[in-house]
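Reviewer has doubts. Consider these tokens.
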Amino acid sequence: MQEDPVIVYSPLCTKFEKDGRVVEVTIFRLEAEASWHLEVINENNTSTVWESSFASDGEAYAEFLSTVADEGMGAFEDVPIVLH
């Protein structure tokens, strides 16, 4: 039986609030891999996942902040699994 992979979470994972909306920012990687993944979950538990991975957790968080600056919190509306 194959064991589940170990997931490493970044210390940059956080709840982020702006314009009266709160999202959960999750940055993670598999223990055996170097690249990081970014997921944002809104108040209704709808997930937005980036299709591409990032070289560092800081790069993933910077992409999140850039998305908020460019598109606002509306980028995380209740549209199931939006890939950027």
